Known about the structure:
Blueprint: E1 2-7, H1 12-25, E2 29-35, E3 55-59, H2 65-74, E4 79-82, H3 89-94, H4 96-118, E5 130-136, H5 162-181, E6 185-190, E7 193-194, H6 203-213, E8 217-220, E9 226-228, E10 230-231, H7 232-245, E11 251-254, E12 259-261, H8 262-276, E13 292-295, H9 310-316, H10 324-337, H11 339-346, H12 349-358
Parallel strand pairs: 1-2, 1-4, 2-3, 4-5, 5-6, 6-11, 7-10, 8-13
Antiparallel strand pairs: 9-12
Helix pairs in contact: 1-7, 2-4, 4-5, 6-8, 8-10
The structure holds nicotinamide-adenine-dinucleotide and 2'deoxy-thymidine-5'-diphospho-alpha-D-glucose.
Amino acid sequence: MRTYLVTGGAGFIGSNYIHYMFRKYDNEIRIINVDALTYAGNLENLEDLRNRDNYTFIKADITDKASIEKIFAENDIDRVVHFAAESHVDRSIRDPEVFVHTNVLGTAVMLNAAKAAWENPDGTFKEDRKFLHVSTDEVYGSLPDDGKSYFYETTPYSPHSPYSASKAGSDLLVRSYMDTYHFPANITNTSNNYGPYQFPEKLIPLLINNALAGRELPVYGDGMNIRDWLYVDDHAKGIDMVQEHGRLFETYNIGGHNEKRNIEIVNIVIETLLELLPDDDPRKKNVSKDLIKYIEDRKGHDRRYAIAPDKIKKEIGWEPETMFADGIKKTIKWYLEHQEWLSHVTSGDYQNYYDTMYKDR
Ligand code: NAD
Ligand code: DAU
């Protein structure tokens, strides 16, 4: 039975990935989920897995060398899938240091612990051990708004935000381990994910949460920035396919040719909410395009991201399966049916965060 060490599994993509893996492999694999449970980590996302014999949660910080080494010492790990990171661009603009600490140092600790556990005395590595580093298309910088340029695996890195700079740093560390030690790894760089369990600091769940409560829908700048949206299950499938069928030491871009301007997303979310909410649901009267409010732009706001998924399609046969029209409906339906989840994650510190980020803009 293969044992996976998943970092950041209590976050948005990590928890969807763990669900995907158990749906796919059920009792054929074991997963150890290591997460520090920051504001973004939520064990409610994984409550249904609590009684599984082949699932273990360990609360630990990836920057804590001793804890991570202990996990490797006590478990024979076959696969590492490394999601844990500080992930929100706006937070990185306010407070860059924690991004460097978690994303760069944390990745170094993970790499070093895996290397020490997997390395043979002659410098080769035990068979069939693999490390997958989950990264972002933001490392490539910003594309012109021309609809025809794309991010390829060979595109030079040009990160603009402290978040993307810290992710670029972590990617380069992984590359350095592959180049220096022949460490068995892959990197994936993926576009904007959407789906269930996403924390409402990110655009889509923030819009859903605000619209349901009749609060303003903040649109940065002119609302014309472009993101390339990918349903989170398709991402989870891509990660698994890269790890099992990709060529070691290679980077794969994962994206779905699904570019949308932010204002289009805002309109789609409002229209879908109005379509899905029954007339007698009191939240329906709150939802309206009148809530849209253009506010001061994000500093250094990248104009356009767009992934060329040619390599992963050609080499591995991965393609996105979820059409945006279906994915967004599934996502919004999930949030409507999980109002309690949304209430839990927006209680406590969330209001302070929101007030600080959006006040006076
Ligand atoms: P998230 O913020 O929802 O989750 C991050 C998780 O990491 C949380 O559970 C948090 O508790 C945990 N974590 C943070 N610091 C930690 C630490 N020091 N030690 C252990 N755990 C820690 O993030 P996400 O959106 O699920 O993103 C996951 C990964 O995917 C990140 O590496 C991110 O850069 C990358 N990524 C995200 C997207 C996206 O659209 N969300 C797209 C491309 C790549
Ligand atoms: O491209 C992949 C990246 O996508 C990931 O690496 C990041 O972890 C993830 O957070 C995401 O980054 P973005 O900055 O693109 O996502 P966010 O949801 O924060 O914003 C999406 C777009 O919407 C962006 O152009 C900014 C804009 N926006 C965002 C918020 C939160 C608004 O206009 N208003 C908002 O309130």
